[in-house]
Amino acid sequence: MKLLHDKKKWNSFKMFLYILPFLILVLIFAYYPLYGWVYAFFDYKPPKPFSIDDFVGLKWFHSLVENEVKINQLLQVLKNTFAMSGLSLATAWLPMIFAVFLNELSCVPFRKFIQTVTTLPNFISWVLVYSIAFSLFNSTGMMNTLLQNLGLTTEPILFLQSSDHVWLTMWLWSTWKNLGWSAIMYIAALSGIDEELYQAAKVDGASRMQRIWYVTIPCLLPTFFVLFMLSIANFLCNGMEQYYVFQNAFNKEHIQVLDLYVYNTAMGSGSYSVSVAISMLKSVVSLILLFFANGLSKLVRGESIL
Description:
This protein is mostly helical. It has helices at about 1-30, 60-65, 70-90, 95-105, 110-120, 125-135, 140-150, 165-180, 185-190, 195-205, 210-235, 240-245, 250-255, 260-270, 270-300.
């Protein structure tokens, strides 16, 4: 009996050793950087080291709302962030539908070709994506050249410089880049659906679309809800790479999301302490949204995502 107990303990220890490298990576790259939050409470000016004389308490948090100009700027940034994230949440079902119809393709080589073509953009950096956009839509690019040759316009249209519909164009580029990659989770879930469910539906006379609606979609909903809840938790985290490369003097007001605002505040004006304060508030709100999403998951699905 003791030998069996020792063997179980040894197996448990081996399992712990397997995950130990990943725990160390999480500690180094996720928790150790939290030490940087101390910058929000000091009047930090690089490369000068910290001293107790530079401690300013909550000064930088108050500075975010100290006048109407800053308040309006922060509200515009939040408006952009909510708009971008809202569009992503409202269309979170697209990868699921794409995976469903991709799975319905009977020609396996063609299905693999489509999956490969739609997944590859995920591995292209946003700098290269902007290069593609610039080649297509700049004032002398392919689109303007085509429109002028067809006589539809006499002057080039400033697609990239315009702030009109910038939220929609950013969503379109993001969808083009991430759709195939996001569908992989649903493709994996599709392989786990019991084939007997489809056979039973066929026996009952269900058409192809009815089998998709009554069998495939319900089986994918648990995966969808988990990913959707995690998206809610990351509502304020849009990333900055896409918006950084597409921003310019003409569209900056409507393209600047919270992550980009933090970067511009730190690197543009040198306000490192202010940018850390904003980042702290974003992290706190994201944590609150995570618990909200977890509570919503328990309410809707009866299961926790944490």
